[in-house]
Design brief:
This protein is an alpha+beta fold and 185 residues long. Helix content is 41%, strand content 18%. The two termini are 30 Å apart. The model has no long low-confidence stretch (mean pLDDT 90).
Length: 185
């Protein structure tokens, strides 16, 4: 199977709790937490978006709404309106961006097909730059890898050359796959 050796990776700054999404908080709590995290981590790249949360929040909200809508139209069964973000096979760039903090790796095969989607690159950045993004289901991703003239890793490298990484959106409570998660650091 193409996906047997593939995994999804979540990066978390040392000041944060892994596998959380600030967008899942009520708006006032999200703004308060963003302000607090930005103040505590002024020189940390990962928190620049929190320092500008007034602009980041509506963009993230709009992107999440588009992702959710498209995912549901594609047959996804989201239990959350805001996904947890991962990358396929990891990204050294993101590991550094998140201060080499906690890294959570989960085998792709352990995530139910109907609660995961993929975009080429950072969904919000690509949407902001191009006005749209390409979303794939797990089956669509597997087909794209299968149709590619090379290995799965070659396919991921090819996409990463243009988009830096393949973003993964997990639309269910991650506790459903805790048994499979490997937490590093």
């Amino acid at each position: 199977m193409i996906t047997d050796d593939l995994y999804i990776v979540n990066y978390c700054h040392p000041s944060c709790v892994p596998l959380k999404n600030i967008m899942r908080l009520p708006k006032e709590e999200a703004f308060a937490l963003a302000y607090e995290m930005a103040q505590q981590n002024k020189d940390t790249t990962a928190f620049y978006r929190f320092a500008d949360f007034e602009n980041y929040y509506p963009e993230r909200l709009k992107t999440d709404e588009l992702l959710y809508s498209q995912f549901v139209k594609m047959g996804g069964k989201a239990t959350e309106k805001h996904p947890l973000s991962f990358v396929l096979q990891g990204s050294e760039y993101l590991n550094e961006w998140f201060g080499n903090g906690t890294v959570t790796k989960i085998p792709l095969n352990s995530i139910p097909d109907n609660c995961i989607s993929f975009t080429y690159g950072d969904s919000m950045a690509v949407h902001k730059k191009q006005g749209e993004f390409t979303m794939l289901t797990k089956d669509m991703l597997i087909k794209a890898i299968f149709d590619y003239d090379g290995s799965a890793i070659d396919f991921i490298r090819h996409i990463s050359d243009k988009f830096y990484y393949i973003e993964v959106q997990v639309w269910c409570d991650i506790n459903c796959v805790d048994d499979y998660a490997e937490v590093l650091k």
